[in-house]
Request: fold
Amino acid sequence: MLNGEKKIARPLRWAMIGGGRLSQVGYKHRTGALRDNTAFQLVAGAFDIDPERGRDFGVNIGVKEDRCYSDYKTMFTEEKKREDGIEVVSIATPNGTHYEICKAALEADLHVICEKPLFFTSDEVLEIKKLAEEKGKIVGVTYGFSGNQMLLQMRAMIEKGDIGEIRMVELQYTHGFNATDEADKYSAAQKWRVDPKIAGSSFVLGDLSTHTYYMSQLIMPNMKISKLLCDRQSFIESRAPLEDNAYVLMHYENGAVGRLWTSSVNAGCMDGHRIRIVGSKASLEWWDSKPGELSYEIQGQPAQTLIRAMPYLDESCNADERLGALHVEGLSDSWANIYLKFAIAIDAKNRGDQEALDYLVYPDINAGLEGVRWIENCVRSADQGSTWVDFEYEQKTQL
Ligand code: NAD
Reply:
């Protein structure tokens, strides 16, 4: 189980390129990287295509002003001069910039963590792979969903033969948020996604299904696709030649077959990210909306739901557990919200800003008082032979 203790000698000095104020994915990088402050320290950045907005944003998230750079090239040059210069950089910019920035980062002797889809062509990837090897650097790709530990449970069960020989692979990553062309007009993040010069040769195949394809490789490392057939469409015509929907049929080397559906025009669908692996004895299914659960259906037996953090799960799965049993995944976000409000309350108190304190909703001393009163009243009732008692609000002692 993970508890934030250090896994490496000291945190890595980390910078971001992109991921600024208006970016969709930047905060996910920071919450991922900085959650254990024993792994990464955000010390620099070129956060935005707009240098002023990038600097302002960087300062606002706690990066020193002189290390909020106007562009990544300046950042690489200036950071190289420092003894405490950056060691690793994350690239969270639109697709068409990944190759150029990644190459420059490696040439500046930095490790790289880059957004997906990595580059436009596999030739580019092979070139960068060679450069990274020459430089002795890591290039990681942020297939962010793939860190879910239940996928490692699927991998372990498949490896152990729990579902038998794999016969069918069902992959789906769809949503309906682009069922109309509205966002293509007003959202900067959607505009570039349907522009081949910036997005590359695909829209949803790259934007969505690269995640799911990687996750399928993670859970079935021995399954190699021998051939595939892809049928793609642009239901919003202005997106052509980039697709907003695609079906892919796959044949695997072991005789298994599969299909993947990816779409951003699956109207009404809020989260259609599913993986179902059908074997000769049983099936496993994982769904992003219930990431802590794994459906295990053995032919002829009642279906089982395997739950995160339980001792019956594989060691590899529980090694990545952070919360422990009973607690749901959203709990970390809830704690983060509460801690942020504690900080705002402390700051308001320090400044004597009573109006801000009155406005803030958070569990303060009164919430603590209520909890203690609740216990007192319950215990009083129980101790009186489990009888009805009036809920006492009066304080017995002065605060
Ligand atoms: P976005 O348009 O919302 O944000 C892009 C950010 O990059 C903005 O802050 C912009 O100012 C900045 N930027 C652009 N060019 C820059 C440059 N040359 N230097 C510095 N900053 C620059 O895009 P997004 O949705 O956040 O997507 C960014 C990347 O992340 C894309 O490759 C996308 O495919 C990927 N993405 C991945 C996930 C995931 O789950 N891993 C989720 C969303 C997006």
Notes: The chain has a mean pLDDT of 96.
